[in-house]
Structure formats: structure tokens, C-alpha cells
Give the backbone structure.
Amino acid sequence: MAATKLRARVHRRVSPTSESPLVQWTLIGIALLFMAVILLLPLYAVFHEAFVKGVGAFFAALGERDAQAAIRLTLLVAAIAVPLNVVFGLAASWAIAKFEFKGKAFLITLIDLPFSVSPVISGLVYVLLFGAGSFLGPFLKSYGIEVLFALPGIVLATIFVTFPFVARELIPLMQDQGTGDEEAALSLGANGWQTFWRVTLPNIKWGLLYGVLLCNARAMGEFGAVAVVSGKIRGQTTTMPLQVEMLYNEYNAAAAFALASLLALLALVTLVLKTALEWRFGDEIAAGGGH
Amino acid sequence: MEVRVQNVRKEFDRFPALHDVSLDIHSGELIALLGPSGSGKTTLLRLIAGLEMPTQGKIFFGDVDASEKSVQERNIGFVFQHYALFRHMTILENISFGLKVRPRSTRPPSGEIRRRAMELLDLVQLSGLEKRYPNQLSGGQRQRVALARALAIEPAVLLLDEPFGALDAQVRRELRKWLREIHDRTGHTTVFVTHDQEEALELSDRLCVMSQGKIEQVGTPDTVYDYPTSPFVFGFIGESSTLPVVVENNELWVGGRAIGLPAGDAKPGNARLFFRPHDVDLIEADASLAGVVTTARRVGGTRRVELEIGGAGHLVEVDLPFDHPAGEKTRLSFRPRRWKLFPAE
């Protein structure tokens, strides 16, 4: 009698949606195994290969002139592309979230375009736009501006590919917050700039940081689009991902993996920061905003 | 500050939200815009604020045409239904926001701003909470902060958009009384929007009843309740019963039977009779409204009886004291003590 009562009580504590321990552990095990093979093993391999010839070789590879140039170029491209995308992303999401206008749905689709187009294609578009056979290329060249196989081309391609990250993160967040706070600020006498700096921006700052983080990671790691427009001139127009590929093709695995490990490290740092942001400010970052 | 709304029309994407609305708001009064949702009351409030611009018509603040002025230039205090407090600022920072964003030439020194904010915090009875953030306060407290923030800029007009709409019934009653006290103490011209007739009747000096983008009636709560000028107002403010009647020989008839009410100056023909369920006399006379009791419910101290009048199945409600012996009967006859006749639709 007492035993049945006890069992009934235990039964009631289990929620109807939970499964038996066997099912739970099998599912968790599959997920963990999958993650180990697909994610952890390659990550381990990158760092292992990078240090296979010792720490000295690792730093020597990083200290090489071309490697240094690649790192500098990558940082420079990101330093230009990310701030520009922050400005574009802010402007686009502000317009979309706070105002009603015709063609809004079309604009949202347009912002998503870089996600659905292969990066190689977007690189090729710039080749067609600014190449020797195009109208713009020779025109700009006559003024001494090189776009293709130079920094401007790489920056343009990177901006195109990373364009959606900031905007996609901010649009749902700003739509969710509505225009009430802005109206309150205006009714209290604040002008447009004051409203933006003191009310709108603080309301979205964590979401914005999250978007910037993802945008930056992608900007530094972009391969396809940049490969097409850069011309891969060693020491001049090779970014880190391109340099890795070139070193690897030259059977210089240790140097390739040394550079690759830096990119992997960037990914890890991004991941940690992203998780920290989600954990700390989850409700101030748009739900489902991750890509 | 006196506010005059003159022949204002507002369309959203060609859909008219307000048709040719005119309203004079007296200086220092507390006026309620009352109506069901979609009646245009919030639109009218936002037009006065300058958060929307009229399609046609003008809005005057005193003698100054404010129609073309921006929301900042109008110097209004606006309180939103969902508070719209700045979540990343403390309560004190929220209240001082309006003073801090002023241009240097008109901005008070920071010590003065702080002193005034603390004074307002005291006025809304939240002293000691200045370092808290909005999400650490209850709904009622947040709305009081929102009011203090609106008052900080010494507005010409105070505008409140369903200020108690998001609060529960008890807090709402409390804040209602409190808002009246604040108004009496500060004397701001105040316009507030509500769909709650009890709130409007209790709180306002005058109320403006709106329906379908038009003003139905403006007057003191007593006038609007006792002398509604349209069937809509009669039905919307307070309880009401209605019945189709025929005017003939200067008398009212229902189902071929005179009910003992004089027609006054009503034109012969079909009309509609309105009366309040609690404003009736039970009488035993031929010339009365007689009907079969269909349901009887006790509501607190009264018994609400539903009667079917005549053979046409018209239902009306009358209120009796809950211990009245007539509550047990299956047939009742009564005559409205006060009533109003409107032309049949």
C-alpha cells in the first residue's frame, strides 16, 4: 500500500515530455560523437599540425614576411568592412523597423541576398563590374584607382558577403522594441541625434555587438569572394585564408596550419564572446538571430 | 494652456481615422477621451501631441497655431500605456532626461536638474527609488515614474494614453485617485484617453465620447450620463435598455398598447425608447410596459430581471432591490422613471 503510493508520487514528478534514461543517454551520446568527429577532431588537428615541428617553427612561420603581410591585410580589410557594415546595418534596420514604406519586404529580401548567393559568384560580379572589359574598371583606372586585384576590391567583396550580419541581428530586435521609447524621447524635447545616441543605440547595444562579432568573424575568414577579386598577389593581396591555401598547396603544411590556427583561435574567441553575450544579455539579443 | 482642435481630419493610407473633429479643451481642466477601440481617441491624442500630423484642420495651443509644429516644439508631456521608460537609465536619469537634452542655453545646471527630479520623485511618492532601474519596479510604480518624467519638462499640456490600461484593477483605482490629486495640485491641462467609462466618469471634469472617428458628445460626467444626446452615448455610458416604440396621439405605444408615457414633441411614427434599468417604477396599471420574466440574476445588492415585452420578443432589463417581492413573479409591469426617445434607425 505504502509502496504503491510512493511509486505514484515518484511517477507524478516525471514530466510527461521526458524520456527514459536509456533514450536520453543514447541521444546525447550520438550528438556528442557527431560533434567530436565533425568539430573537435578537425580543431585538434589544426592545432596539432601547427605545432608538429615545435613552437619555434610555429612562430617562425607566423613571423615570415608574407604571413605578416597577410595578417596585416586581413586586419585592415576587417577594420574597414566591419565599421561600414555597422553603419549600413544600423541605417537599414532603423529604416525597416521604425518606418512604414513601400518596398520594405523587397529591401529585407535584398539584405538577405548575400546569404543565398555563393561567395564565388559575388566575387565574379565584382570582376564583371570592375574588370578590364567593363565600363567602370578602365574609367576608374584612368584616375589611378585600382579596384580589382587590390585593396578596394577585397574590401568591396568582404562588405558584400558580410552585409546581412548586423542588419539581420538588429531588425527583429528593433521591430520588437517598437517606437515607444523614441516617441517618449521626442516628446521630452530630444532631437533626432539625441534620441538615437541616448535611447535607440543603448537599447540595441548588445545586439549590435553580437552582430559585429559575427560580421567580424566572417569578414576575416572569407575565402571564396576574396579569392576571385584579389588576384592572390603574394605579400600584397593575399588575406589569411588565401595565404593558408597557397602555403598548403606548396606542401608547406606546418606554416599553413600555423596561420590556420590563428583563424581557428579567432573562431574560438568569437564563440566564447558570443556565448557570453547570449548568456548575459539573452533577452536583449534578438531570438533566433544567430547564423 | 487652452487647446483648440479645429475641423481636424486624419487619414491613414486613405483610411479615415478621424472625420472633421472639433474640440475645445479648457485651460486647467482634466478631460477624458472615451470610446471603444477604433473610435479615434488615441489618434486625436497623438495629433494634439504632434506624434501624428493632421490630414486637414488645425490645432491651436492658446492663440498659437501648433499644427505645423514638431512634437518637441509643442512642449507637451506624454504618458504611454506601456510606460516607455528608458530601460538602461535609472529612475532619476529617466526623470531628468527631458531637462538634460535641452540646448545649453536653456538647460538648468546639473545640480538644479537633480533637485527638480528629486522633487518630482517625491511628488509621485517614490522617494528612495532613484537609483533603481525600471525593470525593478512594479507596473504602478513605473507609470508614476513616467508621469514624473513627463511633468519634469513643465509641459503646456499633459497627455495620457490609456495610462492605467496595463495595470490590474486595484492598482488602477488607486492610481486614478492619485492622478486626480496630482492634477488638483499642479493644475496642468490634462487630456487622457480611456475605454473604461467608470474611470472617465470618476476622474474627469468633462468627457468627450467618441465613436467611429467622430465626437458623439462632450460634457460633464453628470450631463453625459443623465442627458445622452445619441443612442450610442446612451448605450455606451452606463447600463441601458432599449425598445422600439410607436409615437401616436402624443403617446408611446408598444405592441398596440399605450404604455403611459407622453411623447412630448416627438414626431409621430417609429422611434426608439432608451432607459436605465435602475430608473424604473413597478406599477400595477394597464398603461405600462408588461412582460414575462425570462431570467433573473442577482448582481450584488440588486436583482437584474430580463423581461420579454409584448409578443415580438423584445428583451429589456430592469433592476430591482434583491429582496423585492416582485422578484419572485413571472410577470412584471413597470414604467421608466426617466427615459429618452431617439428616432428609429
Summary: Chain A touches chain B through 16 residues (CB under 8 Å). The CA atoms of residues 149 and 231 of chain A lie 5 Å apart. Residues 287-291 of chain A have pLDDT under 50 and may be disordered.
